[in-house]
């Protein structure tokens, strides 16, 4: 049966709010979403944990991601006052290039002739002779080529003096045999004294010269090989210096 009343004739009743179940709805500050309490030390809902940066935020004192720090140039642009690289990614270099390293710097050589713990590269004749006798029996460390060959030249000059005396004595034999014999024997004694006096320092400086070429000192005994030993040793002694020879140096103790 159809109700003859129009919609306006229905009795009106005020709308009642629908109660929300417990635990629903937004959580108050400091509360868990389910209506309970937060554990000790936990951050409020939606906030970053204590001590952590929010997502996307830069650490304190740093520029946000994608922005240049204050006062810096964009990536690839040289800073004010710096040399501009010649091509992207090149290291800057001063105008005219860097000065070449000296042998004293490259090979850790002696800075003064009195530094006997290191080899003296570019040694002069007086300095080489003085270092030769001061390192009379030193088998540790190194000796540069200039030190070695100047010492060799000094011995050659000393032997030449004795040889000249022998020649003079031989010339005097024609006029005075006794005077000639005296001069000859003085030359022989002089050459013998040079050989004996230089025996140990010759071995020591050859030992150190081999160290400077990054070879062990016992390589000196290759000279004992018949016929070719002396030539082999001469070639080894004439080899250039190598930075690896620094392993034969004694450490420098702080003063």
In short:
The protein has six helices and no strands. It has helices at residues 103-106, 125-134, 145-172, 177-197, 199-212, 229-237.
Secondary structure layout plus pairing:
Elements: H1 103-106, H2 125-134, H3 145-172, H4 177-197, H5 199-212, H6 229-237
Helix pairs in contact: 2-3, 3-4
Give an account of the 3D structure.
- The protein has 255 residues and is mainly α.
- The chain contains 6 helices and no strands.
- It has helices at residues 103-106, 125-134, 145-172, 177-197, 199-212, 229-237.
Which terms would index this structure?
34% helix, mainly alpha, single chain, 255 residues
Structural classification: mainly alpha
Unreliable spans are: none
Give the overall form: rod-shaped
Portion in beta strands? under 5%
Report the sheet with the most strands, covering strand number, pairing sense and barrel closure: none
Number of helices: 6
Distance between the termini: 121 Å
Mean pLDDT: 78
**Rg measurement, Å:** 46 Å
Oligomer: single chain
Along the chain, the helix and strand elements come as HHHHHH
Number of strands: 0
Helix content: 25-40%
